[in-house]
Design goal:
The chain has 664 residues and is α/β, with parallel strands linked by helices. It has 2 domains: 355 residues, 3-Layer(aba) Sandwich (Collagenase (Catalytic Domain)), CATH 3.40.390.10; 169 residues, Neutral endopeptidase , domain2 (Neutral endopeptidase, domain 2, Orthogonal Bundle), CATH 1.10.1380. Helix content is 54%, strand content 6%. It has 25 helices and 9 strands. The strands form 3 sheets. The chain has a 4-stranded mixed beta sheet with strand order 2-3-5-4. Helix 2 packs across helix 22, helix 7 runs parallel beside helix 11 and helix 9 packs across helix 13. It is globular.
């Protein structure tokens, strides 16, 4: 069955594809469709995620029913599916037990609230943050474990700027976000009132002021994409010198590691934005501990709110859901319970998901698609007129080392060490976070696990990881409209084929092109080739800087922020078309013009998306992806699109051949 059969009722045939491919394929749907009240956006992508959520709910419900009455099912040492089933059931049921949650009130968060009230100085603050982040909280910066960008066979601890309650530093300085700042203060006042603060309104004002001070040290979002400037490897002593007001040893110890001395587990760290930590040190010294207590109390309450009373849940949602994303209605509790279970034991659920929803035939077809996309990239590289043979050879070498991961991991995660109880939601949330913190810290000093997946099998998405040079396509995205075993080949190449090409393209975008096939930052370009690549990247930046979303007149895409994803889209679709020609030639000869049109039509269909204005504004500020309409209409740069649709000067998507950007 054709994938586009589902798309045709939403097409607007009054819009010519030569003028607006996105509008042609999706125009009627955009006009007629109402976004569900519990969603901030809608379209096939989100619908597919909703279906996966329904499928996971069925799995959780059945596992819970099957595990009932088995007193030994939860034994930590049994390591089998029965133990996982009992834990999954207890996680889900503890979230769904609203009577118990309401009866507990704010008491489950009281130990952390009391700990904040007892803080005496900034050293205490650092120790508290280590303990708080270990169990799922968030503080002054983000931390994570990943491969070393310059030595990809080992893991390092990484630090990234953070500490803000609003989505981005620009929300604290840009006049267009003044109303959101006022709403943020209102939210904090309500939150602190529920937390028992004696003067919540004054405290909320102080928190905004402190947030604003922290934001002044943040790098702008586009600057955080520079993989050279954000690689700063420091020893423990250098980290202490960079931010001397923060007790790093106390923080790391309470997180679960050891920073220095005998038996150190974290001897080096990578600091992504070092000037932020310098700035943070000054803010720590200048801010009285009383204000830090207010700030930390708001973080404790916000972190715990999803697991506490309905009043706290609704307070959190009112700001982060309604105000920031425009979503009118909180998602049903069972949906939030599913997300909670997936966050805690996602691979245990995923094992069952792929058994039910990902047939071996789909995996075999994906293997073939990936092989054709890799072959198409090799062919495309060979034809580049702006790259020398020396750099092409290096590109071939990197391409040959790409590792595709399709459907699900070869080895599922072991959750036997996770302790879950049937009647304490907050304890389960903290246990799951602590389990994951320990799992991450245990990587340091261990061999790099190149079989690890960074998405769940049921996730509707895909990724490229430069540190392992891998492309990953979970089973969740391998459904219509991206892929179907029964679809026309042109549809699959316009859908999942372009996604494959996109992820491979990340290996050659403005960031990925700086990594070699082993996952190391290693300059494999000649100077002239690098200069030619930068010219093309800057042309794409300039092109996207000129785009204004149809629903936000006067606002513009940030070309520098989105350039990596735009290069991925541009290369992905170009190479998908080439791969389709390769596949068609091996079977039936050259495809017809109508077949090639089908490929582009499905490309536009997969980006069928309608967003609430609040979310569109937020994403325009923080999202490295361009709005869906511009992702679909990147076809303006493809000679192949102009050829099959017969565009001409004056058409909306016409670009003079000299102005078309073609990189890969």
């Amino acid at each position: 069955m054709s994938i586009l059969d589902d798309a045709r009722p939403g097409m607007d045939l009054g819009i010519r594809p030569q003028d607006d491919l996105f509008g042609h394929v999706n125009g009627a749907w955009l006009t007629e469709t109402e976004i569900p009240s519990d969603r901030s956006s809608w379209g096939p992508f989100v619908q597919l995620a909703d279906q996966a959520e329904e499928d996971v709910r069925a799995i959780i419900t059945e596992l819970a029913a099957a595990s009932d009455g088995r007193s030994d099912a939860g034994d930590a040492g049994d390591g089998g599916d029965s133990g996982d089933a009992r834990k999954i059931a207890d996680l889900f049921n503890s979230f769904m037990d609203t009577d118990r949650v309401e009866a507990a009130g704010i008491a489950p968060a009281q130990p952390l609230i009391d700990a904040v009230a007892a803080l005496r100085d900034v050293r205490d603050l650092a120790a508290f943050l280590g303990e708080f982040e270990r169990i799922g909280g968030y503080g002054l910066f983000g931390s994570y474990v990943d491969t070393d960008d310059r030595q990809s066979d080992r893991y390092l601890f990484h630090l990234v700027q953070g500490g803000l309650g609003l989505p981005d530093e620009s929300y604290y300085r840009d006049d267009k976000f003044a109303e959101i700042r006022a709403a943020y203060v209102g939210y904090l006042t309500r939150l602190l009132t529920l937390g028992g603060h004696t003067d919540p309104a004054a405290a909320a004002d102080r928190i905004l002021e402190l947030d604003t001070d922290l934001a002044k040290g943040h790098w702008e979002r586009a600057d955080t994409r520079d993989v050279q400037k954000t690689y700063n490897r420091l020893t423990a002593a250098e980290l202490a010198a960079l931010c001397p007001a923060f007790d790093w040893a106390a923080y790391i110890t309470n997180l679960g590691g050891r920073l220095d001395g005998a038996g150190a587990t974290i001897a080096e760290v990578v600091v992504r934005q070092p000037s932020y930590l310098q700035h943070l040190s000054g803010v720590l010294e200048a801010t009285p501990i009383e204000i830090w207590r207010d700030w930390l109390l708001s973080r404790v309450l916000r972190s715990a709110a999803p697991y506490l009373t309905d009043e706290l849940v609704q307070t959190n949602f009112d700001f982060y859901g309604r105000t920031l994303s425009g979503t009118p209605e909180l998602r049903a509790r069972w949906k939030r319970a599913v997300s909670f279970v997936e966050g805690a034991m996602g691979e245990a659920v995923g094992r069952e998901y792929v058994a039910r929803h990902f047939p071996p035939t789909s995996k075999a077809m994906m293997d073939e698609l990936v092989a054709n996309l890799i072959a198409a990239y090799r062919q495309s590289i060979s034809r580049l007129d702006w790259m020398t043979d020396e750099t092409k050879e290096r590109a071939y070498e990197k391409l040959a080392t790409f590792r595709p991961k399709i459907g699900y991991p070869e080895r599922f995660r072991d959750y036997s060490a996770l302790v879950v109880v049937p009647d304490d939601l907050v304890a389960n949330a903290q246990a799951a976070a602590g389990f994951e913190t320990d799992r991450q810290l245990a990587k340091i000093g261990a061999p790099v696990d190149r079989d690890e997946w960074f998405m769940l099998p049921q996730t509707v998405n895909a990724y490229y990881n430069p540190g392992t040079n891998e492309i990953c396509f979970p089973a969740g995205i391998l459904q219509k409209p991206f892929f179907s075993p029964d679809a026309l080949p042109a549809e699959n190449y316009g859908g999942i084929g372009a996604v494959i090409g996109h992820e491979v393209g990340h290996g050659f975008d403005d960031q990925g092109a700086q990594y070699d096939g082993e996952g190391n930052l290693n300059d494999w370009w000649t100077a002239d080739d690098k200069a030619a690549f930068e010219v093309k990247s800057k042309a794409l930046i300039a092109q996207y800087d000129g785009f204004s979303p149809r629903n936000l007149p006067g606002e513009h895409v940030n070309g520098a922020l989105t350039v990596g994803e735009n290069i991925g889209d541009l290369g992905g679709l170009t190479i998908a078309h080439t791969a389709y020609l390769i596949a068609a030639a091996s079977e039936d000869g050259a495809p017809s013009v109508e077949d090639r049109k089908t490929l582009f039509l499905n490309w536009a269909y997969v980006w069928r998306t309608k967003r609430r204005l609040e979310q569109e504004q937020q994403y325009l500020t923080i999202d490295p992806h361009s709005p869906p309409e511009f992702r679909a209409n990147i076809v303006r740069n493809l000679d192949e699109f102009h050829e099959v649709f017969g565009t001409a000067p004056g058409d909306g998507l016409w670009l003079d051949p000299a102005d078309r950007v073609r990189i890969w």
